[in-house]
Automatic annotation (TrEMBL), chain A:
Keywords: Cell membrane, Membrane, Transmembrane, Transmembrane helix. This is Polysulfide reductase NrfD. Its main location: membrane. Belongs to the NrfD family. It is a multi-pass membrane protein. It is found in: Cell membrane. The keyword Transmembrane applies.
Automatic annotation (TrEMBL), chain B:
Keywords: 4Fe-4S, Iron, Iron-sulfur, Metal-binding, Molybdenum, Oxidoreductase, Signal. It comes from Aestuariibaculum lutulentum. Residues 1-25 form the signal peptide. Residues 47-104 form the 4Fe-4S Mo/W bis-MGD-type domain. CDD domains: MopB_CT_Thiosulfate-R-like. This is Molybdopterin-dependent oxidoreductase.
From TrEMBL, chain C:
Transmembrane segments: none annotated. Residues 3-32, 48-79, 80-109 form the 4Fe-4S ferredoxin-type domain. It comes from the Bacteria. Keywords: 4Fe-4S, Iron, Iron-sulfur, Metal-binding. Pfam families: Fer4_11. This is 4Fe-4S dicluster domain-containing protein. It comes from Aestuariibaculum lutulentum.
């Protein structure tokens, strides 16, 4: 029999018996970051393709990223144990630290997402403006809006790489930690990006009032789901072919305490069921599109929760 | 191994638009000075040091207490010049400041009182508490004679109170350290070599070539010098042989571990003697010169072959032969260690005799790598009138045990229980520095005695269980806050150490010397306490010894040259042992005269019945008995004990790691608290093991209350050593319950 | 100059003196620790092996905690000692997640704390508190770059291992076995 235990004193809050340094705020933030990245990516892409008129939901969806990123940021800061020192993030840029990348990308993307929204605000939400009368109160906004609209193309050009970095970063943040075998694989970046794009597409579907638009994003979403499933299979095969610690990490997801959550909620309800529903819908049957879209979003959120929680349970054996 | 000059990792901050702000530019957000201070607090302060010696166990290592400018004790570090610790304290000594900082300490005198029919304690002034105690001292003396007031003690406060009691006319004094711990080895070695083992043990472990431990778990018992020297022995490549049914830490460091069946040690020892004598491996010259009774011994051990022992001990004959040969090859630099806590099965003095005889056969007594001739320096007695002669005392109480050399706590307890035929009735106790509830076996008997007492006063630093039974509780300040007697202990050379208060006593606690003097003054014994402050006593003694208090405050420890001759026997030197014959007595006429076995014999002890396991217990290196469990530093290290169970047993009973279980012993006694299971291969399948000292049931000990189980409460059966009254504690068997047996009794 | 610690598991008895010494020396709050002791048992009765190890930050030559720190609070100083500057630390936990040894913890005051090899004592020419207090003298500390130092000699002449070398951190606490 092999036995390993602490002889003394290890009873540190959030570390013993297993790591629980990162809780729901991190999971939530990873999800919101991915969601915002997805929406911004599509919005910028279709704008550059000159198709923003065809797809009005994209403009409406522009409301989501600023809110999501702000809430995500708040969640992040809430999770810091030394929040008074948050400003220290912006005194330096650490090229090897995903956390540093994330802080800087957020610092640039969040205001940009606000500006992006503002440039569509009057045309997309005339009702709100009639209530708020912002442009009446603040004369300079006219000029500002004009300036933004003329520079929208540049904003879109900036948003595409930024949103991709943001989406990839939510995965790389975890995969950079080789101490946590479940996270430490290169698939996590693309996987989280794909998952973020897919939740973004699903959010656009939910906001869409236009059949053609929904159809397009259903197709996109379906494609993304297929890629995502492929990446997850790839990831699990990677664990399976990996070292002892990775095998143990895999056991958490396959045949361990997270199995039901992972296979039931993420893979089945969050990926397979929406994919089947979207196929059925594309074949011309009537399916309430909101259902698969909502499932995708919930699945995406749960996926991050599972990865964050389970990853912290995995460790090296001495 | 190749080490390249490594490059330091320095990722220079990328100049992102002049983002590298200087700290002063962002003063609004700048670092919180409080936090910074907290992080650097300990490192910047100037610390001053005070000489002390440790009181967390009885080893009494000399140390320095470091205090900061606010008069807070920050750390305790060993004194480099001290032969007890060589500048390195054990974890308990290092954590000793937890005794001082523990917020659960006794803070003020308490007097038992009845409020609305409920017995409770009320806080009292020292004046009132001491007056009450003095009154009781006088009353007991008048009614029954001073002999009926007993003192049960441990450690430094004991010596001050002992002086008070002797002045008062009572020699009814005992400490559990004798009959519940090391008594039998003193008797066994005393009968053989005419000398106690004593503390610290005069074992030359650092130079030994072969160390044999029999149930002694050095490394788990942190007897500092012993642990340090065992480490040296490992460095020197000494052979270590450990006999223990449990795979102890020491066993894991051993080249040979003999996993003996519990309660069969004497069979192994006799068989070792058989091998040494039959194979003529014993130290012939030494035995011829210094020992008597060899021929009787040879005849006595002839039948005890390794094959005979194998059937009893389950140790393979070849292992017995191999280890015996190893001991002989290393002799005389071989130590068969006497052990320390040796009250196991009731024939413990005889087992220790066997150990002593083995050492005698190998010639280790008085030889390098064996046992050295210890020496201590005597401290001049501070003048006081002669003590009155008590009519009876500890000796008479334990008179049925002819070889007892100290008070036997269990006998004091028995003499306290009212009985027509008892010529030595004890009516009142004073207890200092020992938690009898967790220290003595047969808790019911202890409680019966306590209930019969007319008066019980307890002196302690912590609200131990025993304080809950007292009429008066006196809060003693900790060793870091008081003067105490000069430490003089045996070692390779004599040394003394002083204890100087590092800080003023916390709360309303007082030193034991002050308590003794106050009581003495009140009962007309002022002449015995002819000083205002104990500092004067130490100063007077130090001056007599050719040093001074000022010097000792600076150095803490003073080492002296040996005056009694060399550490070891010279080649062919004549030597008079302290036995009646002046020789090492393999055959003991003293024992034979009183009708005892003159040479050790193996007797069979009961083995656990079906469904029961032998309750084995021992020490955790982080704790001293039950007294340190609440210490904030030490409870951080180990806050509860676990029940070690062999995987086979766990399979049979379907026990899982960390599952709470309750224990029920052969007499139906239940453990008060659950204890978590540790499934481990380190224990035999016929035994369970737990660390001693846990399972405190006084809620005032906030950290220790209800943590783990108490072995003491499950030790209801003892086997008494007929030679010296030691209480064998290892004959208790427990069954393991997975359901809470107290559930039905809870209201 | 490359500081390293060498710990002889053949002598360590797991008494945890190193843990208390660290706590009192460095004001580590109760309930937390910068070092700790691990016990590993293998085999089956009566053929057993027991290893006791005093563990702490390994002051890795390739420290993932320093790499992933977003503010530079975790950094390496002369001698290869990894330190955390409390008032640069934001408590994001990235370093804790990245450490395969679980050697870091969040101090109740918010910043991340860990073993410093008692670098404040080294500056005064003293040994780390844990090393200086160990009753079995099973811990050694010194300069790995000096081939004649006690630790270099020990590593030259004895079998040793490091913890989780497969994590690729190049740890600098060595265990003699």
């Amino acid at each position: 029999m092999q036995e390993e235990l602490f002889t003394s004193g290890r009873n540190i809050p959030n570390i013993d018996p297993s790591l629980q340094i990162w809780h729901w705020p991190i999971s939530l933030y990873l999800f919101l970051g991915g969601l915002a990245a997805g929406i911004l990516f599509f919005a910028a892409l279709f704008y550059l393709m000159g198709k923003e008129k065809q797809y009005p939901a994209l403009k409406k969806a522009a409301v989501i990223p600023p809110i999501a990123l702000s809430v995500g940021l708040l969640a992040l800061v809430y999770d810091l144990t030394h929040p008074l020192f948050t400003w220290q993030l912006y005194t330096t840029f650490r090229i090897e630290s995903p956390m540093s990348w994330g802080a800087w990308v957020l610092l640039i993307t969040t205001p940009l997402s606000f500006l992006w929204l503002f440039s569509f605000y009057r045309s997309t939400f005339p009702k709100w403006e009639s209530k708020l009368k912002l442009f009446k109160k603040f004369k300079f906004l006219e000029k500002f809006e004009k300036f933004l609209i003329t520079n929208r193309t540049y904003m879109a050009y900036a948003l595409i790489p930024l949103s991709i970095i943001l989406g990839v970063y939510t995965g790389i943040l975890l995969s950079a930690f080789n101490a946590r075998p479940l996270w430490n694989n290169a698939i996590l970046g693309p996987l989280f990006l794909t998952s973020g794009l897919s939740t973004g597409a699903a959010a656009i579907i939910l906001l869409s009032r236009n059949r053609e638009e929904r159809h397009l994003f259903s197709k996109i979403d379906l494609g993304l789901i297929i890629v995502e499933i492929a990446l997850i299979i790839h990831m699990i095969m990677g664990y399976y072919a990996g070292s002892q610690v990775q095998l143990e990490a895999m056991d958490l997801l396959v045949g361990g305490e997270f199995t039901l959550m992972f296979f039931g909620f993420v893979i089945l309800l969050g990926l397979l069921v929406p994919a089947i529903l979207e196929v059925i819908e594309l074949l011309g049957f009537k399916v309430p599109v909101a259902v698969p879209a909502a499932l995708v979003i919930i699945g995406g959120l749960l996926f991050r929760f599972i990865m964050v929680e389970a990853g912290q349970l995995t460790r090296y054996l001495y | 191994m190749v080490t390249s000059r490594r490059k330091f990792i320095k990722i220079s901050a990328l100049g992102v638009g002049g983002i590298t702000l200087s700290a002063s530019a962002v003063n609004l957000l700048a670092s919180n000075p409080l936090l910074d201070a907290a992080a650097k607090k300990n490192l910047a302060k100037k610390l001053s040091r005070t000489a002390t010696y440790c009181e967390v166990c009885f080893w009494k290592c000399a140390a320095w207490a470091y205090t900061d400018e606010e008069g807070d004790i920050k750390k305790v570090i060993g004194n480099d010049d001290d032969p007890h610790c060589n500048g390195r304290l054990c974890p308990r000594g290092t954590g000793g400041l937890g005794m001082y900082s523990d917020e659960d300490r006794l803070k003020t005198p308490l007097i038992r009182t009845t409020i609305n029919g409920e017995e409770t304690y009320r806080e009292a002034s020292w004046e009132e508490a001491l007056d009450l105690i003095a009154e009781k001292f006088t009353e007991i003396k008048q009614k029954y004679g001073p002999e009926s007031f007993a003192l049960l003690k441990h450690g430094s406060p004991g010596s001050h109170l002992e002086h008070l009691f002797k002045a008062y006319g009572s020699d009814t004094i005992a400490e559990p350290a004798y009959a519940q711990c090391r008594g039998p080895r003193e008797t066994g070695f005393g009968l053989t070599f005419g000398s106690w083992v004593g503390s610290p043990e005069p074992t030359d472990i650092r130079d030994t070539k072969c160390l044999v431990l029999i149930g002694s778990h050095i490394g788990e018992n942190m007897h500092n010098t012993q642990v340090q020297e065992m480490s040296d022995a490992i460095d020197n490549g000494a052979t270590i042989i450990t006999v223990d049914p449990r795979f102890s830490t020491a066993a894991s460091k051993s080249s040979h571990w003999l996993p003996i069946k519990p309660a069969t040690d004497i069979a192994l020892l006799l068989s070792w003697m058989h091998v040494l004598i039959e194979e003529e491996l014993y130290n012939k010259k030494y035995v011829e010169k210094y020992a008597i009774g060899f021929d009787e011994l040879k005849a006595h051990v002839k039948p005890f072959t390794p094959e005979w022992a194998y059937g009893i001990t389950t140790i393979k004959p070849e292992s017995i032969r191999e280890t015996a040969r190893l001991m002989a090859a290393a002799a005389p630099a071989t130590i068969i260690h006497p052990g320390r806590h040796v009250t196991w099965y009731g024939d413990d003095s005889q087992r220790e005799r066997a150990i002593a005889i083995l050492n005698g056969l190998l010639g280790s007594w008085g030889n390098r790598g064996g046992f050295y001739f210890k020496e201590k320096i005597s401290i001049p007695k501070y003048p006081h009138p002669a003590y009155p002669e008590p009519k009876w005392g500890w000796h008479e109480i334990g008179e049925q045990y002819p070889f007892a050399e100290m008070g036997n706590t269990s006998e004091v307890v028995k003499a306290t229980i009212p009985n027509e035929d008892n010529p030595y009735p004890i009516k009142a106790w004073m207890i200092a520095g020992t938690n009898l509830i967790n220290t003595l076996p047969q808790r019911e008997q202890t409680l019966e005695a306590i209930n019969a007492l007319e008066f019980l006063v307890v002196v302690d630093t912590m609200p131990m269980e025993i304080t809950g039974y007292a009429d008066v509780v006196l809060p003693e300040c900790t060793y870091l806050e008081r003067y105490d007697g000069i430490r003089s202990a045996t070692n390779r050379h004599p040394s003394i150490a002083v204890r100087i208060p590092a800080v003023k006593p916390k709360y309303n606690s007082k030193p034991a010397w002050w308590i003794s003097k106050q009581i003495g003054d009140r009962i007309g014994l002022g002449d015995y306490f002819n000083y205002n402050d104990f500092e004067e006593v130490i100063e007077w003694q130090l001056n007599k010894m050719g040093t001074s208090l000022d010097e000792m405050k600076k150095i803490g420890v003073k080492n002296f040259e040996r005056t009694s001759g060399p550490l070891f026997l010279e080649e062919g030197q004549d030597y008079e042992f302290g036995t009646p014959s002046g020789k090492i007595e393999f055959y003991s006429q003293q024992l034979a005269d009183l009708g005892f076995d003159p040479m050790p014999v193996y007797t069979h002890h009961p083995q656990p019945p079906q469904g029961f396991y032998r309750l084995n217990y021992g020490r955790s290196p982080m704790h001293t008995f039950s007294r340190t469990i609440n210490n904030p530093y030490l409870s951080d290290l180990k806050s509860e004990n676990t029940l070690w169970v062999n995987p086979k047993v766990a399979r049979i009973l379907d026990l899982k790691k960390d599952q709470p279980v309750w224990l029920k012993n052969q007499d139906g006694i239940l453990s008060a608290f659950p204890i978590k299971v540790r499934v481990t291969e380190r224990i035999r399948w016929d035994s369970v093991y737990m660390y001693h000292g846990f399972g405190h049931n006084n809620k005032k000990l906030t950290r220790a209350f209800g943590k783990g189980a108490s072995d003491a409460e499950l030790i209801s059966k003892i086997v008494v050593d007929p030679l010296m009254g030691g209480t064998g504690l290892r004959g208790n068997f427990v069954s393991i319950l997975t359901e809470d047996p107290h559930k039905n009794t809870k209201v | 100059m490359r500081y390293a610690m060498v710990i002889d598991t053949l002598k360590c008895v797991g008494c945890s003196d190193c843990v208390v010494a660290c706590q009192t020396e460095n004001n580590v709050p109760h309930g937390y620790c910068r070092d700790w002791v691990t016990e590993a048992v293998s085999g089956s009765y009566p053929n057993l092996e027991l290893e006791l190890r005093s563990e702490r930050c390994n002051h890795c030559a390739n420290p993932p905690c320093v790499r992933c720190c977003p503010t530079g609070a975790s950094h390496v100083i002369e001698g290869g000692i990894v330190l955390v500057t409390a008032d640069q630390c934001i408590g994001c936990g990235a370093c804790i997640e990245s450490c395969p040894y679980d050697a870091r913890y969040q101090h109740p005051d918010g910043y991340v704390d860990k073993c410093t090899f008692c670098h404040h004592r080294l500056e005064k020419g003293q040994l780390p508190a844990c090393v200086s207090v160990c009753p079995t003298k099973c811990m050694y500390f010194g300069d790995l770059d000096d081939p004649n130092s006690e630790i270099s000699q020990l590593l030259k002449n004895r079998k040793y291992k490091t913890l989780s070398p497969e994590a690729g951190t190049d740890p600098h606490v060595f265990y003699l076995i």
